[in-house]
Amino acid sequence: MITEDLVKMSSNQVISFGEDISDVSNTYCSTDNEKVESGCMVTPGGHKYYVPISVEDNLKPFIGKSFQSLESGIAFYSEYGLLSDFNVRRSAEKTQSDHTILSKYLVCHKDGFSDAKLNCPEGSKSKIGKRRRTMSGRCGCEAKLVLKYSPGNIYFVYNFIEAHNHPLVPEDSRHFRKGSRKMSTCSMNFVFDASKVNIGTMKSFRMMKELVKGYENVGATSREFRNFDRDLKAFVGVADAQMIIEKFKVKQETDPCFFYDVDVDPAGNLTKLFWADSTTRRNYELYGDAVSFDPTFNTNKYNMVFAPFTGVDKHNKCVTFASTLLSKEDVPHFTWAFEALLKAMGRNPVCIVTDQCAAMKQAIPKCFKETNDFPASRHRLCMWHITEKFPLKLGHFLCKETEFM
User: Fold this and answer.
1) Could you read off the pLDDT of 68-82 as tens digits, one per residue?
2) What is the pTM of this model?
């Protein structure tokens, strides 16, 4: 019986290798007294081989067709594969001693067989490595294109087999083909912008689907989105610190009030980073009498401490004065951060509020000391941190007393 897959392949027809296809009808032929649907052709021997019929003749390769380079020939056959609803895979090649490619085989993506056990001799004790549990689609398809080298760096079609022994990709599944799954510049920018606000690749893929009205219009699958995000992180690699410094340099050129300071260790690794823009420096000038410094936020990748300098404006809203990243919470690192704040702002805060950190207790008097222009800053402890430690230090029973709290 003709399968349902053949019925769906209305844009394909069937021929057989090794048989005279001139006698095969373009509409239908009889095989075991059964009629074949229109759009498919079956040889008298009952073999089914599919040939694309929706491709124009000028886009089909033929024996003797020449190309100016090997890559142009590969690109031509790849484009033919997209139009013919199959994927092209590069296969064997023959080269000279000077690495000149004499012949190149381009095959269908279903060429060969993927069962690794067929390559193992009987009785062999060689172990096959663990493989991913994916469905194999290879069925020994013999469709191929052979390009041969000709003097003058010209390649011509030496052999071309057009027919396939498997149904081609149906129209409603064309966007799942490997050759069709390519991320556009718009999709790449969307993934990059979404990562800036901590939106993952799967969520950004679903959002992109809603923007373009369907998965088939995205042009890629969620796997391509994840791979692009992986490649983007690999491209950044260990150069992300240099990238942020270069970004600060550009920002300082456009905004003269932007201030930043960096420090590295003897190995060249970034250990301290401080920055403040024109808005935060203006906030410090107006509301910088009382400054809160809370280094309690750790980054994920490098385990650096993010410590913002914050305060309160006239509307009792929290405002930021500056930000810093520190690799350690010790006296030298805190001293460097406080000195960077003085460089950026030009004066001591009247009061600085911190948690009960012994390192900051030593660093604050050294940095915010009294000068001819400004008095020394007063160091105060955060009441929130103190009240949070009441149950641990005093016990829950005493803390339950309303008058005491």
Assistant:
1) 888 888 888 888 877
2) 0.50
